Amino acid sequence: MNQSEVKAELNGTKAFGMSMFGFPKIALPGVFAEFAEQGVARAQEGCEKVKAASEEIAEALRETYSSNARSATDYGLKLIEISNSNTASAIDFLAHLLGSKSITDVLTLSAEQARKTVDTTSAQNKDLWELAQKLATETGEPIRRHAAKVLQKAG
User: How much is the pTM?
Assistant: First the structure.
């Protein structure tokens, strides 16, 4: 036995005159050979189904991540827009308040600002809620669609 054959045996690539994953050639009666061939065919078919399902799930996750990133960006941008709007409104209120000449002007401006703030906050919350619903829907849709496809193929 030369040095490369010894290394091959030690590495497990050859054992008892067979390759590592080889099986000895045993003559099986015809019925057993058919059963063995059918078992191998079913196993290969099962592996192909698992591989296809794995590819579908990977695609669903890619689509979900992409959709989620877009929706999360939209939500973040809306938060920035709301923050900017609210800051500008507060500064405008403060400027008007500083220009007030009487306590009546201060009370009137404060009441107007409070009403405006409630209306604005309500509209902003509605916008944020719609974006959150869109995020949830768009995140779940690719998973639902691909899971249905996988289940349909498996059935």
Answer: 0.58
